[in-house]
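User: Hi! I have a protein structure encoded as tokens and I'd like to know what sequence might fold into it. I'm fairly new to this, so please keep things simple.
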């Protein structure tokens, strides 16, 4: 009886919460169906209802059927946890690249779209940063704790919330050239969602990935 109770409790813990009105899930909680890996596939695994990103630089792009994986105005919500010292991120308005097109010291990263930072380190742009566009210095979440990251793209504005707290509200100015990340970091047409595996010493978990179109 005790074993059955523990098993039942584990099932309840791993069960995905009910979707908020208007949202559609992009991840089935079991495997990477609907996702396409650009880079080493071994950097991603599914464990206990979450996508675990840990390994050589690689990205999991949403490639599923909802809206033909093409989103322009939307609200995206993802439950995220970063292990101590981990580096990761969520890309929006991006597109699949076999190994990314933007060379950095630690690997190759998507050349199109914006990264919303997930970071468990002690220095650098913090979790919630619109990476190298609006970089945050304040520590908003603790390592090893789940939090909800909300990303809203509407026309030329990107809003980021961490646990419902708005931390970024950026409107692309006229003539914006992409800043230090290059011309691909511009709001133009629609794109898909990508999850980042940054390096072998990082472990970031993503689950309850859901989206609501705003058009």
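Assistant: Happy to help. Inverse folding works backwards from shape to sequence: for each of the 215 positions I chose a residue that suits the local structure. Here it is:
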């Amino acid at each position: 009886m005790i074993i059955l109770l523990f098993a039942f409790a584990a099932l309840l813990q791993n069960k995905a919460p009910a979707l908020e009105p208007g949202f559609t899930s992009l991840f089935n909680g079991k495997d990477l169906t609907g996702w396409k890996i650009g880079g080493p596939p071994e950097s991603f695994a599914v464990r206990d209802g979450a996508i675990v990103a840990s390994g050589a630089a690689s990205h999991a792009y949403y490639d599923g059927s909802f809206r033909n994986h093409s989103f322009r105005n939307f609200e995206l919500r993802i439950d995220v946890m970063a292990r101590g010292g981990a580096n990761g991120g969520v890309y929006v308005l991006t597109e699949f690249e076999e190994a990314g097109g933007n060379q950095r010291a630690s690997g190759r990263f998507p050349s199109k779209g914006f990264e919303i930072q997930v970071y468990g380190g002690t220095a650098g742009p913090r979790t919630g940063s619109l990476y190298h566009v609006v970089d945050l210095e304040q520590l908003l979440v603790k390592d090893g704790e789940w939090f909800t990251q909300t990303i809203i793209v509407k026309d030329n504005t990107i809003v980021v919330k961490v646990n419902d707290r708005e931390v970024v509200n950026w409107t692309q100015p006229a003539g914006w050239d992409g800043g230090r990340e290059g011309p691909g970091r511009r709001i133009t047409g629609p794109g898909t969602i990508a999850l980042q595996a940054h390096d072998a010493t990082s472990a970031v978990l993503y689950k309850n990935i859901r989206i609501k179109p705003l058009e």
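A useful reference point when you look it over: The first strand starts at residue 24 and ends at 25. Feel free to ask if any position seems puzzling.
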